[in-house]
Amino acid sequence: MLRTTGNNRGRGRGTNRGRGESAASLAFGVAFPAAAEPMDVDPPQQQEQHQQQQHQQQHQQQQQQQQPQPQLQEQPPPAHPDPRQQQEELEHGLPDPPPPPPEGRDLPPLRRMDDEKQFRSYQSTMVHFMRWKDRINYPMDYIFSIQDLSRVVPRDVYRWLCFKVYGTDEPGHDEKPIYGTSNSMMSYKKHISYFVTAVNITAWNELTKTGNPTRSQLVNDLIDLVKKKECRGAGKDSQADREFSREEFKQVLDILSSSDDFDRRYRYTTMYTDYRARWKRKDMQSHYARND
Prior knowledge:
The protein is mainly α. Helix content is 53%, strand content 0%. α5 crosses α8. The longest helix is centred in the N-terminal third of the chain and has 24 residues. The protein is extended.
């Protein structure tokens, strides 16, 4: 029997592996793919590649640290919608421009008003009311025609007044008028009536649906209801001014005296002190009898 030497065995295994076959494939007669041989990498070269990767990572980290990071702003929790804020957005924030006034419209014969500032106040109220009614962003100097004013009914005035004092145009029975007072409602009623009376002078007639809509029973009952709620303490707080107390008057004088401005430090303090002394003396004199 012939025996193969070690060199032949080494050659045979090397030859078989080189051809893509292994010992298991020869034993079982099945061709298995040979395992991929590891690539020979020089240790110094591998170490140099590893150092280059570390340098690149450090450089990227430094760039990220140098770049200003956006600061996240804390968003406040969603608050409940304020009817007064919605009202201002509705009256002053209508995005669509108003359409051009139609041709041939009839302007109402308004009564002459000598005070221009008062007329602008009346017109501002009327424009806000018509903006809310028609959902059109009318300009502040818009003059409404007779046709526009003839379409105003008491229900429109009632809902707008409710919106001004209650924050909603359909308030419930338990709602409180905390956004306006009865005096402001009467002022709004007077301003709207100034323009409407140019078309309808008489009071509102429910049968014929004609007249001044601000002089209707519906609007008057609403104002009376708000007055009752104010008397019960369920309305808006009073904004009436009152006289300074002694401590408050002294505090005002101390604030003015500590100012560096000449008028505030000397002029206004002297005026306030003299004014208070004169009125105080008049009050004392009113208690004297004629024979004193």
